[in-house]
Amino acid sequence: MKDKLLKLKDKIIKAVAEASDLSELEAVEVTSLGRKSEFSQAMKELGGLSEGERREIGRLANEIKQEIDTAVDQRRLELQQAKFASLADQDRIDVTVPGIEPPKGHLHLTTQAIDDIVGIFSRLGFTRVKHPEVEWDWFTFESLNMPPDHPARDEWETFFVNAPTHRKLGKMVLTPHTTSGSARELKKGRLPIRMINISKTYRRQIDVSHTPMFHQFEGLLVDRGVTVTHLKGVLDHFAREFFGPDRRTRLRPFHFRFTEPSFEVDISCGICSGTGHLESGSKCRLCKEGWLELGGAGMLHPNVLKAGGVDPDEYSALAFGWGVERTMMMCSGIMVDDIRVLYRSDFRFLNQF
Ligand code: DAH
Considering the domain 109-350, what is its CATH architecture? Predict the structure, then answer.
């Protein structure tokens, strides 16, 4: 009996030591010490022994049971520690690994150009202003020296809004140019003025070089003694800052109803440096003659100053205005053969900028 118990003990302790995880250990415990176990069977046989033997074997059995319990506890501890150790290995989070960045958007390239333009003029003291994009005829045309029915109005391909006509200000339109902000600015009566008005403009035209909605920026400087020289200086500053340090502007006489004198502003071509010829001697394909047309400019007509409540004998004003998209496209690097692609929300195009 004694031998039998000692052998059983060895067998159980071996099984305990060999249990490779916690559930296996639990199974060993049940099968070796549980009610139906060999050990329990052996205990039942104690009843058939003499009293002396029973006491001796009983004590031995108790010792063995304690020994097994201790072995089980120890093995459990070992297995638990091993489990935590491997958990720490497998489930470890390295908080220093860079995260997964969600895709980032960016400003539309027209907005980027607007920001650049505002930055350039603000360094000359021009403040950005905004005026209504749904505007009265009076601000759009009449205050700009274009009386009702004047043929010059036709050039602006205007969208008229189906709304009641104002007795003095006339019909409502979608602003076809940002010059309409000038009379509003003059009427504020705060002189001198250095404003840059950038907003959406609308015209009834759509083709490879026109979208019915586009943007214009309009500069207006009103002060005593403002001359064409100042205008040229402001435009040259813009050309250098926006297009590059070696670009120049040229003023070509033109006609606008709201300026006198009026000019078309050209910028020297970035490809042929204003010569019209490439180094190889062939004609520049971009400009053909060295200059690219930017937009209009001039000295504000006295009638416009008067309409805005400013005395033309005391004040003079320079003005210029043209399209943001066109100007941006002319900035080297961005060449598209259809301007409409700007507003088609096609990421293959937009993501490049
Ligand atoms: N508003 C004119 C247009 O849309 C452009 C323009 C010409 C603006 C001459 C000016 C200017 O300020 O002086 O065609």
Answer: 2-Layer Sandwich (3.30)
109-141: b (≥16 Cβ within 10 Å) or e: bbeebbebbbebbeeeebeebebebebbbbbbb
- Determine the atom of ligand 1 nearest the C-alpha atom of 220: 12
CA dist., res. 267 & res. 39, Å (int): 104
Containing 77, the helix (H) or strand (E) segment is helix 51-90
Binding residue ranges: 260
Q: Whose CA is nearest to atom 13 of ligand 1?
A: 297
CA 216 – CA 149 distance, rounded (Å): 24
Which contiguous run of DSSP H or E holds residue 251?
strand 249-254
Which residues does residue 49 pair with via DSSP β-bridges, in sequence order?
none
Instruction: Select from 154, 130, 298, 137 the least CA-distant residue to 216.
Output: 130
Task: Give pLDDT tens digits for 132-187.
Answer: 999 999 999 999 999 999 999 999 999 999 999 999 999 999 999 999 999 999 99
Count how many Cα atoms sit within 13 Å of the Cα of residue 7 in the half-sphere of its side chain: 6
The maximal CA–CA distance of the chain, rounded, in angstroms, is: 139
Residue list, annotated binding site for Mg(2+): 260
pTM of the shown model: 0.72
Task: Give the burial string for 147-156 (b: 16+ CB within 10 Å, else e).
Answer: eeeeeebeeb
C-beta of residue 223 within 8 angstroms of C-beta of residue 192 = yes
Domain boundaries in the chain? 2-90, 109-350
Cβ 160 vs Cβ 173: under 8 Å? yes
Which candidate, 188, 203, 125, 191, places its Cα nearest to that of 157? 203
As a whole number of angstroms, the distance between CA 288 and CA 286 comes to 6
Considering only CA atoms, which residue is closest to atom 8 of ligand 1? 321
5 CB-near residues (< 8 Å, 6+ apart):
39, 42, 57, 60, 61, 64
User: For the segment 97-117, what is each residue's pLDDT rounded down to a tens digit?
Assistant: 998 999 888 999 999 999 999
Does 179 sit in the ligand 1 pocket, CB within 6 Å?
yes
